Amino acid sequence: MHALPDARGHFGEFGGRYVPETLMPALLELQQAYEHWSNDADFNRELAELHAAYTGRPTLLYHCERLSDRTGGAQIWLKREDLCHTGAHKINNGLGQGLLAKRMGMTRIIAETGAGQHGVATATVCALLGIECEVFMGAEDVRRQALNVFRMRLLGAKVRTVDSGSRTLKDSINDAMREWVARVGDTYYLIGSTMGPHPYPQMVRDFQSVLGREARAQMLAARGRLPDMLVACVGGGSNAMGLFYPFIDDESVAMVGVEAAGRGLDGGAHSASISRGRVGVLHGKKTYLLQDELGQIQEAHSIAPGLDYPGVGPEHAWLHDTGRARYAAVTDDEAVYALRILAQTEGVICALESSHAVAYAMQMAPAMGPDQIILVNLSGRGDKDMPAVAAYLGEEL
Amino acid sequence: MATRIAEVITRLRGQGRAGLVPFLSVGDPDLATSREALLAVAETGADIIELGVPFSDPIADGPVIQESSQRALRAGSSLPRVIEMVAWLRERTDVPLVLFGYYNPFFRYGDENFARDAKAAGADAVLSSDLPPEEAADLVAACRRYDLDRIFLLAPTSDETRMRAVAQVASGFVYMVSVTGVTGARAAAPAAGIEDLVTKARAVTGLPIGVGFGISSAEQAASVARYADLVIVGSALVRRVFEAGPGGAVAAARDFVAELRRGIDGVRKS
Asked: Taking a C-beta distance cutoff of 8 angstroms, is the pair A270, A301 a contact?
């Protein structure tokens, strides 16, 4: 396992802690607390027990025989994170950080959310642990994701509507950071992806690595060998880092992160920060960002709300620059197509985010041999996306 | 050679008063109005001026400066326009000018290019809200090469270790954030704890201390002037200038700065 980030949170030139001075003491304290508790046997036992009793871990590793037959070439396997409680991998990180916040004596948790998946996961964890919860969500997203807003409220969380900027995910992060600046004494900011200032990218990766460790062991148990290629979608990049990290030293295993090409990479309406972005600093970290020549951040687009962010986790930027991982992009059209094919061949309706990874696997498989294995992280289930998919296909619900 | 900021500090100490440091976003509501308002601020009694470099995602700012940034960006403001504004002002005033923004526009421009062009235009110092000392090595080195002062923030959450880290890289003055929170006018003057914090900071650094965030009236400015070397006023000025509309912006800026100066000048320091 590579020993990154360094003590100040850098993955090569990426990562770091680009925050107002007010937050620096809190970040240093968080780093210390994380180093302490992540090495504490009781903490790790409690997290593992919750994963077994509550999250539903280990999740299945599943061989898509009909999809593989249809596609031809390599065998496609799925790591079924869609079977986690709350329907996605987000709970892995939520539980880890929630337990950490509790150990740190924090009485209040705040979180940002775009489509609401991380917000729901955080509200769930707060209900379970008995911690006050407030979720920041852009006004535009509140309108589009009314069901998740209702879920969060039902779980006892307060949903704070964000009216600043473009009123979407990036603005909900801005406002959550502003709130953290103001309430840093009693408030824990539970960031939902491998982004933000150090130690968040490391911490989120570590909490998500449970899925990669399981997948690696399950693959060895099922076939006695490692997969040839890992594929995962990348917005901020937490499900991909969770899958990639335990395989980093396995040089025979190719790793591909799939960004959202939206309506096409050349049209400007996409979320492909690595494929089309430039290096910059946003939300506490240096990484690839969608921005103009003068350093103003641009809007991202994807049909998958969880990929709709104009940046990417700094460790992905580093894996890209070192060549250890490759980054591709899949359009809205291709993602919706893959969602339908997976549903019709395997009876699995996946999230639009995850269908980007499925689409890429379907494109790669024919050029590979039938004895080769592509392991796809199926990061979430698709229930939340049914209205969007129906609308995309021109069907009324 | 003493920098302009050092000269101002010497003069203020000679006069036995605190200095006034107004902030305006460059380009709000448009570049022409903003230019005249800034000149009016310089001529009415600002001792140092902070020029806000607008950024799309200002995480340390409250609603007033967020909206000001957005208006400025819509009006075509950007770091190159801000540097041009510095050059225009420098032909007309000797007031020290601090470029105050977020790191990404500086980084995209290039630390070295930014420091070089800012200095050539006549800027005196740089402050980046989201750049703690740990990440500031490149910008600090570039500023040192071009003899620009480096302003850094301290906050109510800063302990002595943080103060020392800031003191190592800062020059010109240290900006003490008076509230645990984002920028924006507040009804009450900064809490008494801030005076203690300034005292603690003085034990760590010999640099002058400016206090800002939340100061919205001449009365509050006067209360801060008792213990701070510089009183920094942002959101309250931005709001007055905006509410006055393009036609009234210059007069509003002039009136409010004069009012703040009267408050500060009423406090004599030994």
From this structure: yes
